[in-house]
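dude i think i finally got it to work??
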Amino acid sequence: MDIAAGPYQEGDAARFTGRVWLGPGLPSTGGTGMTVVHFSAGARTHWHAHPGGQLLYGVSGRGRVRSRGGPGHTLTPRSTAKASRPGGRVSA
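look at this
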């Protein structure tokens, strides 16, 4: 069993705009890894890719997510979104 533990760290300006906190994550061995990310109001990511895909789960608040060139989706508490297109990029 793998367990993620430790303090949250503030996200860096190279990957995020606004204040973002990253929780300890679980590494991936060729699949989808797991990390908890908290976005403050108005914060967002820059376009990026997840080679193993990305699964997003809304815990609180509202967020907009989309794949490049695709329609946007509003992520709300208890809703999920999956980006699984090979080479796909996502912005949250």
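The mean pLDDT is 82.
im so relieved honestly
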